[in-house]
């Protein structure tokens, strides 16, 4: 069997969407057509009997536009206020769209504290387990309203990998504004080669991760995606980095087509999630 073919059999899938994939580049406002496609894609996967968790950025971007701020908020308090406004707006839209396909969306907001504290982590795990058992689709974001530097994940790439490890997902898909992993930055180096499959993550590969992103709304560059890949594959999940320009790519990836960079699961016997989270501190 082609290694991509096995993606068809995945049962528990975490999908992370970056802010730049949810908003119009010109205005920073939500791209509702794309959100409708995203919700339809996820609803159809759910109808196939798969557990689906969506890690969605966008709260600060949405909140700042609602309040007429046409730039990235500067201060922590401004970011947190915009997150409070934007998260409510974002969830309202998600719930409305999911309800059209007879799906129930649930909100889960997390900070690094949720995962570092043993009791909180177990509670979070139990909550996810119960939501998935009930047939809901959890929508996860960092709790930007209360996060400070000490307790924030910093971006949703790592958060999605931590969630995948926590709930025992067998596939993580990161969708942003890049096609996948290249040997160098393709925007700067025309000779950069695309890497289709990564079997093991080593120091050479980690060196390819440039802390850059082509978007002024997102926070995660390739370095954070490789960090996420380390967590997800060590926990036993395959991971795909692909371009979120067209959300139809989701069913194409899961039907085994050749999209994005596939990182193969490499479950570590000694995997302990806390060790990986502490490296993010």
From TrEMBL:
Entry keyword tRNA processing: no
UniProt main location, coarse: cytoplasm
Places the protein is found: Cytoplasm
Protein EC: 2.7.2.11
GO molecular function, one term: ATP binding
Residues at which substrate binds: 57, 144, 156
Domain of life: Bacteria
One GO process term, biological-process aspect: L-proline biosynthetic process
Gene3D superfamilies from the UniProt entry: Acetylglutamate kinase-like
Pathway annotation from the record: Amino-acid biosynthesis; L-proline biosynthesis; L-glutamate 5-semialdehyde from L-glutamate: step 1/2
PROSITE patterns documented for this protein: GLUTAMATE_5_KINASE
Keyword Nucleotide-binding: yes
Pfam families: AA_kinase
Keywords associated with the record: Amino-acid biosynthesis, ATP-binding, Cytoplasm, Kinase, Nucleotide-binding, Proline biosynthesis, Transferase
GO cellular component terms given for this protein: cytosol
Top EC group: transferase
Reactions performed catalytically: L-glutamate + ATP = L-glutamyl 5-phosphate + ADP
SUPFAM superfamilies, per database record: Carbamate kinase-like
Start and end residues of each Aspartate/glutamate/uridylate kinase domain: 11-243
Residues at which ATP binds: 16, 176-177, 219-225
Function: Catalyzes the transfer of a phosphate group to glutamate to form L-glutamate 5-phosphate.
Cited HAMAP family: ProB
Alphabetized NCBIfam families for the sequence: proB
Similarity-based family: Belongs to the glutamate 5-kinase family.
Protein name in the entry: Glutamate 5-kinase
Organism: Lactonifactor longoviformis DSM 17459
Record gene name: proB
